[in-house]
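FAQ: What does a multi-protein file look like?

Like this. Sequence, then tokens, then the next protein.
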Amino acid sequence: MIKDILKENVTQEKTGIYYSYLRILNDELIPAMGCTEPISLAYAAAKARCILGALPDKIDVIVSGNIVKNVKSVVVPNTNGLKGIKAAVAAGIISGREDKILEVLEDLSDEQKDQIIHYIENTCINVSLSDSDLNFDILLTLYKDNSYSKLRIVDDHTNVVLIEKNGEILYTPEKINSHVIHNNDKLLLNINDIFKFANIVEINDVKDVISRQINFNTAIAEEGLKGNYGANVGKTLLSLYGNDVKTRAKAKAAAGSDARMNGCELPVIIISGSGNQGLAVSVPVIEYAIEYNVASDVLYRALVLSNLIAVHLKSGIGSLSAFCGAVCAGCASGAAIAYMLGGGVEAISATLSNSLAIVSGIVCDGAKSSCAAKIAASVEAGILGYHMYLNENKFSNGDGFLGSNIEETINNIWRIGKNGMKQTDMEILNIMTEN
């Protein structure tokens, strides 16, 4: 059991990996309100407005295809149900709260919500597709009379790489900035070291960030089951399959997505830049901890493991891809459940291998209501992968993309998600822009 595992590792010294893994958790597990791509647009707009120092009368928005894909069909929070790029940008302009970062649209007044609609109707907001080869690229230029401000975000939701005003470059990142450090930390991730870290990490080092994840993500999952959001995937699962722990794990994670994809104003603690992945990686583990009366420190360790495995699975694919990120998070939660119920590296690796073999073909066709169902399917695969291990069943190494060990399998997943699905991503975008 976990107590025995801890005894084996308690004397391990803290290394650079220890602090790198702590940085990853603190950098990744941050709050965001609503789907993160429109919120990133809103944050960029609020920051660019502050640089301009005035309410712009014209805005040029240039974005990569994956931004279009993930903004088109989700409700922007605090906008009275508006969707799309123009709504996200206008909401950020009216908010102006760049200091709130990915919670930039928190606490908008009724008057501001009305102003957003009026602003869209009376302001020239030009949206065009970037010719950049980056999957995540946002470039905003705001104009007021003879002044302008320009701001660019690339690679992830808050990674500002350019601030310009009236021809003067105000900011470009240093060669070694926090984004580069964060990516270098991710290079150290592997299943064996994640397992060791989960065993030895001092709870006080992760308590604040993990407890916030538990509280925030549980709250929006419960709201999703109470309210009427989107396709109500979470509610449907409970009404159809009952109230056992496996169904609750899927349903509550899906319900959180039901809510956040459809305008719920509660924040989510994200992972890999995604609230849906943040829900899939945490809520099922929390639900199993409740069912089995797991001690709080063991739950913290399991969530540490779940979060880091999800980041590891996603890091080689990139922030946006045609590979559904819920797969990484749902499979990671299955591995964390295995760990929490006494499994070691073998159980974790087998659970991941089994579950990845099941659902790695799920494509991302943008953020929308059906993301909740993809979360449910991925969590189901994670749980099934664990029970296959318990019953001494597994998919064979060398079958399909399964490698000779878990790290080789993960590398193959990276190849599929980053390289193999490029054309898929383009076709999905073509289909979406034709409609």
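And here is the next protein:
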Amino acid sequence: MDIFKLEHSKTAYRADLALYCIMVLALAAFLVMYGPHEQRADIASFVLAGLVSWPAIEYTLHRFVLHGVQPFRRWHEEHHRRPKALIFTPTILSASLIAVLVFLPALLAADLWRACALSLGVLTGYLAYTITHHAVHHWHVDNAWLKRRKRWHALHHHRIDQPGYYGMTSTFLDQLFGSVRRADALQAVDKDHDVY
């Protein structure tokens, strides 16, 4: 089994989602059960900081890595070509990046509790992103928020001439950095929210 391949079976795809759910629940339980009581507020603030930082991490990775750096760009282009395919970042890669770029620096700069708390916030953001991205491509529900996410992401997939719409869980950074395009593109996609 190739753990670095991009397209996976339904079982592997579901296992990735289950693994992240388990990691979030286990890390939250660890912090609640074993975290020092006198540091509860501090731990909660680090979880919140990790969660609040997620949209910036998501936007940066999507805009500058997945649309700019090889081989990630090539891999992401395959997702654009086949949006219904079960293509996702291999679990070993995404988990390693979170460990190396979030947990270890926080551990070196602070302590175990703050590192775990910050990682929990980022992991929760990543899990929300993963579920939202899957829902946008595969679910058919009558939910206003999800319909807006589908519309936004459809613009990302279908506006090759004017890239943008990089945020999945938040539109704020697209608006802040000008990666939102013309209103006529919105009208073109409005005709069919369920473009996948």
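Q: Is there any per-entry metadata?
A: Some entries carry free-text notes. For the entry above: The radius of gyration is 18 Å.
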